[in-house]
């Protein structure tokens, strides 16, 4: 059974995420600090402020752990703000630098109503016709790594992929069967995946 780590960044409903991953047949551990255990995949959960999540990541040395995971091509899934922190910055906390794995900045979007809360269809070759659940006021508007977009007031990047990293702006743990399949795919990437 594959072992999956959920990083506790003090943001989001970790237990609904844990339950969603366990339903797929994975063993799940939640940690607030790295230890000596090895894992087959890592999830950075969503919800919370950009600056607060990054503060917790850096104070607990998760940035070092994540860079090591990246070097060995471990599957990594970033959800909502857990995706945004891997970019360079966010308008939500403009004085805080992101981890800068990817170029771009999370920006406040011109939504009809803020925050965006509810279901939206993905424009994606990888997940065609998938309808998923969003809760967000900020997003990466465009990225060369985009594998899905959606529109709510304006079109924005709903998911990215780079090597064994998948980031999603939506909440797959709240997105029924479509979300379960996205989690399964993200955590089943092999070392050869690009």
UniProtKB/TrEMBL annotation:
Pathway: Amino-acid biosynthesis; L-histidine biosynthesis; L-histidine from 5-phospho-alpha-D-ribose 1-diphosphate: step 5/9
Gene Ontology MF terms in the entry: glutaminase activity; imidazoleglycerol-phosphate synthase activity; lyase activity
Reaction(s) catalysed (UniProt annotation): 5-[(5-phospho-1-deoxy-D-ribulos-1-ylimino)methylamino]-1-(5-phospho-beta-D-ribosyl)imidazole-4-carboxamide + L-glutamine = D-erythro-1-(imidazol-4-yl)glycerol 3-phosphate + 5-amino-1-(5-phospho-beta-D-ribosyl)imidazole-4-carboxamide + L-glutamate + H(+); L-glutamine + H2O = L-glutamate + NH4(+)
GO biological process, one term: L-histidine biosynthetic process
Source superkingdom: Bacteria
Keyword Hydrolase: yes
Location of the active site: 80 (nucleophile), 171, 173
Keyword Cell division: no
Gene3D superfamilies xrefs: 3.40.50.880
Keywords from the named record: Amino-acid biosynthesis, Glutamine amidotransferase, Histidine biosynthesis, Hydrolase, Lyase
Residue ranges constituting the Glutamine amidotransferase domain according to the UniProt record: 5-185
Subunit: Heterodimer of HisH and HisF.
Protein name: Imidazole glycerol phosphate synthase subunit HisH
